[in-house]
Amino acid sequence: MLTNIQNGPADSGATQTGNLLLDTGKRDLSWLNRAHGEQLALCRELEGIADSLPANINRQKCIYAAKALGPLIKGIHHYEETVLFPMLQANPGATVSLGSTIERLKFEHCEDECFAEELTDALLKLGSGERVNMEAVGYMLRGFFEGMRRHIAFEREHLLQGFTDH
Known about the structure:
Layout: H1 20-23, H2 29-52, H3 59-90, H4 98-128, H5 134-159
Helix pairs in contact: 2-3, 2-5, 3-4, 4-5
């Protein structure tokens, strides 16, 4: 479970994730590995919420996940788009197809952020006890965390293979 959420901004000038573990220290490939771990932990939480529908909802987990979702996703995407992707493209061994792959990943980032906003709204409603379409929320949850897991797996297997911090 994610345990490092914070309420206030950190001192760093980088886009904040809302997570104490990620908002302190140097942002490098080891940071990205920890960030992927936090994203996967959030996916496990979202899967647990989906599995609890419709009768065993932990409202506190819904609100916690809603608070963590947007900042975490946006902070990681900002790092990837401003640091990781340019670093990969500057590598002398970069292939011609890398540019189109990165453009596709940026598009996925945009879609994921929009989806995360909609999911945040649904989780807040669920957490506050508002009436929601349980089947639709379950479908949204599963679609989001499965897509996120695929995205992380692709990045790890195809973009980050063989890269280490300097």
